[in-house]
Amino acid sequence: MELWKAMEQRHSVRAYTARPIEGETLARLSEAIRQANQQSGLHFQLVREEPNAFSGGLAKYGRFTGVRNYIAVIGRKGAAESCGYYGEQLVLRAQQLGLNSCWVALTYRRVPETYRLDAGEKLYCVIAVGYGKNQGVAHRSKPITRLCRTEGGMMPDWFRRGVQAAALAPTAVNQQNFCFRLIGHSRVHASAGFGPYTHIDLGIAKYHFMLGAGKDNFVWA
Questions:
Q1: How buried is 101 (Cβ within 10 angstroms: 0-12 exposed, 13-18 middle, 19+ buried)?
Q2: What is the tens place of the pLDDT at every residue in 153-178?
Q3: C-alpha span between 62 and 39 (Å, rounded)
């Protein structure tokens, strides 16, 4: 599955079957996590067959059922944007592998014995992953003109594709509180607004933008 198709087809899924993640799928997901950690210096960890994080009142409030697998999003303090950027790589890789997923920031229970925190690290959130009972539904998106700024009203095709890709990115409570600004011909400045988890959201959106725009067409300002 191409990454653009994965961006279009991936939606937040909250209900999962009991089918375990195993075999080649598990091996490829584990390798993607290893590579993301190596590239980023983060400490993502796959927690499998663990039902306690998504049991009880918080999970019910979040309408989660059947979640037994999740990726613990772990990094040093100040790494929220990187967590979003590299975490979304794993989300789209999971989609390519036939899995479903959902970023979860509040409606889960921390189970510290299932993951490891090294000195100076924190658990930012988790990503539920597994075989969904459905494929989810597309989120409502703002017009791309509300997600970007350009000089003189000109919008190169590569920049438009980048913003269109960013509009597909999941964000906390679907707030889409980010903005991409084109400076000159090829410099792009991405900024987060105010609100919960906006820096994680910005990292997610920046990864989508890079995929849509093409990394050779711009530099981050």
A1: buried
A2: 789 999 999 999 999 999 998 999 99
A3: 32
